[in-house]
Amino acid sequence: MPSGSVNKDLQHERNKCSFNQEEFTLWWVGGREQLDDKRSIENFFKSQPDFHDKIPLHFASHKEKYEEIIRKATLIYSKTRQFLQNQGKYDAKNYLKFWDFLLGTGLIKEGNPLRLQFDMFIPAIVGHANAEQQAKWLDKALNCEILGTYAQTELGHGTFLRGLETTATFDRETDEFVLNCPSLTAYKWWPGALGHTVNYAVVMAQLYSNGKCHGVHPFMVQLRDEDTHMPLPGLELGEVGDKIGYKGVNNGYLGFNNYRIPRNNMLMKNAQLLRDGSYVKPVSSVLTYGTMVFVRVIIVKGMAYELSKVATIAVRYSCVRRQSPINPDQPEVQVIDHLTQQSKILPQIAKAIALKLAADNLWQMYLKTSSELDSGNLNRLPELHALSCCLKAVSTSDAAKGMEVCRLACGGHGYLSCANFMTFYSLATAACTYEGENTVVLLQTARYLIKSWNQALKRQKLMGTVQYLSEYVGKSFKRLAWSDSIPVIILAFQAITANKLRLASIHIENRKKAGKTPEEATNMTGLELVQAAELHGRWFVLQSAYDMIENTCQTASQAFANVLRQLCALVVYGEALQVAGDLLRFTTMSENDLVKLQQKYEILLAALRPNAAGIVDSFEYPDYSLGSALGAYDGNVYERLFEEAMKSPLNQEPVNRTFELYLKPLMRSRL
């Protein structure tokens, strides 16, 4: 960490830390090897002057931002290769590991346009291309000899894949597909890096052959000349324009006008089209969703890290900022001494940790499911898809809300661009809509939950994460016996979810009996279904956090175990208080029990407060990763704010030319 002068209040907070921070950091990053790798590559990039902005990029124009970000993005590639070569670790496995780490380091605050290369383009090749096609394109993609994106969303269609309009019609005479956008709404819209960065894309389009539509399939499409980078004839290609955030990602649009590609450019790992136009369908239609599941798994962990960064900024600022004495005859106190401030920022730390543990659990499920897919076992894929949907929604919505809470907790200074809340908040709010708008993906989870509920009614065996539903079918309604122990509260989330599903199922059936179609009845019950799906996701987060923390505590030091259990209890109590009405409805909780739970929550805030600075230090985010004048390690907030103000182009001259042009004439016009 940086040396030199540290704000005395922040240092005083650090001196209170009751646990070994190295132990926490090792747990957070996943072990000694990961921590050593993290530190070495952070130090390497910290020493590279090419990544230090003399003038913050938020002062640049839209075009200047893009050009500078591309410079940095390509430099990251070459610098990472240089680093690995120096370490004797230059191979595809290590390169991908370090590249994945670099995507979240904060070297490019505005978003890395090459991220889609590794998050979606390469996974799409692996997930959809057969062995021959992978031999043709995979190494080129890994070596960045070709740059690609994943083009699914259209101007008029997003998550609803069956509604996509772009067509790929097989021409049997030429052995080619002809790609077309039959309307403006069929134009691909939003794919990252599509505007001016990539020269290839995996395009999702409706496959037509022998006069029949076979649904949406992936196609490898070259977009630009590999030498000149000029768009190829038959394409309309460009950028969608400025956005709230992700200003460097170069999101684009793509239109096809009788654009031809070889038949073998259809990615044929799961489905094939033969030379005579015969269609060989995949083993399961859900295989089409593989790339989206992978991305949603990544999103959940990404949100955990981004929220923990924002919480770090808010905690450090709250330790330095003094305002409003608690006792009138005493000086102003550190803002973090106010219980109301603790209630804003400490739960965000706990939530970030819980989301990270849930993401780790989800990742292990993804790896297991992927290995089973390779052997032809598709049983777990629907469960994984449903879980990744609701966790994507829960993690992104909670991260966005938590970041805004942290920004507000930093008062007016939190509104400055140099505080960097804007960057993190725009990342989280964007994630609420990309890869499936949150309400839509919650409805996808709900569809799986209702199907599982109906299976439970028939006494069929359910998959692991929905097995608890079986305990609530075929019985008259009975409230869960309440206690404020962590395991019982987590069980209460199962009870709430199951009972909401039970009621939703009854309401769907009643509406069908009243003459509504199954689709209409389901739509009319949508609010209940979304609530059940979200609660299912929250149960999984809490259960994952509790199980993994308890497992860690078996071998952890007593001091570290105490802090972990306090953080776990804080997030569980906090979630319970958010659904207090449902707990009163579906458990035996009384009003007195609710009062006691609130009291225990407040006691936990006070217990965690002395360790707040130590916990966020243990995340070990370098200053350039946080990019915040409020959250730097040294805590010299006011000096850094003034330094950032001096970087404004308007402060480079005492009088701006607008005085002579406009202000002076106005002041002398004697209106």
Please name the defining characteristics of this protein.
671 residues; alpha+beta; Butyryl-CoA Dehydrogenase, subunit A, domain 2; six-stranded mixed β-sheet; three-stranded antiparallel β-sheet; 22 helices
Helices and strands, with pairings:
Layout: H1 8-15, H2 21-29, H3 32-46, H4 62-87, H5 92-102, H6 115-128, H7 131-142, E1 148-151, E2 167-171, E3 176-180, E4 188-189, E5 200-209, E6 212-222, E7 235-239, E8 252-256, E9 259-262, E10 272-273, E11 279-280, H8 290-320, H9 339-374, H10 381-409, H11 421-431, H12 438-457, H13 486-513, H14 518-524, H15 526-553, H16 558-578, H17 580-586, H18 591-608, H19 612-619, H20 623-626, H21 637-645, H22 658-667
Parallel strand pairs: 1-5, 2-5
Antiparallel strand pairs: 2-3, 3-9, 4-8, 5-6, 7-8, 10-11
